[in-house]
Amino acid sequence: MPTSCGQELTISVGWKKTQLIEVSPYPRFYRSLLHRSLAYLMDDGQAYAREANEVLQTMTEKNVIPLEDRLPRLKQERKQKANRRFVFYAAVFFILVLIIVYFQSPLSKVTHVDVSGEHYTSRTAIIKQSGLLDRPHYWDADVKTIKKKVERLPFVKSAAVKRHFPNRVTIRVREYNRKAYLEENGAYYPIMENGTMLAKLPKGQLPVDAPVLIGFKHDQLLKKTAEGLAHSPQNIIHGISDIHLIHDKEEDGNLVLYMNDGNRVLAGTATFAKNIAAYPSIARHLPKNERGTIHLSVGAYFEPESETSKETKK
Question: What's the whole-model pTM score?
């Protein structure tokens, strides 16, 4: 603070400007203080100069590029980024154009349908049932919907559908197997494992590799017998010559199976699939060269043919 006895003194040394003191009526004391302040400021300025020199030397050693030299490089990098951005947006634009053209052109419609695995069902019937005969757009051809439609066909057990870009669909079907032949008025009709009947065999052609069903007038009993054969081992089916329906009542003992080994099997449509599996084991334990009737409807036992003949004579 200035007083009435002296003046304020300001000293600038190098980069510092310091208000030291005001001159007072006590010159010796303040003169000493002034010399000390000047010495301090001079030492501090020298230290700052040394530090600045060290920074400049470090920048020179690290090859720091001045701003005016970096400007061309920055402009080049900015130009490259702009070019990359332009290429990206141009590519997106052309892809969108191609997608629009694809959807509006005939290329997007299903024109190729490949069908495999069919034997009893015609290729045309499968394509017509799938709905692809109308040539829908590729993205409108729903795989799950086509699968359900094809599996509604009477001979198709399962179907697998795949789409192949840009306009192809493949359908692979698995049909029911033929398990028997129905004899009716001297003609033979193939029966599938789900009970579906095919067209009759050509005249003169005889059934092979499957038993003949005789006397079946009721569709429900025919279907149950076919399903029973579908769940039976193939070696047993090949051992059956023909199956006779004794009566239309769905109860035990309404089926008589004539086997190729000379035996007969008495069974029922309700338990046929489960009980017929025991036949090979029972047949192996029969007396040698002994033929007769094996009852599989209620329990399981063997009745020799000789006893059956005696009961018939009585």
Answer: 0.61
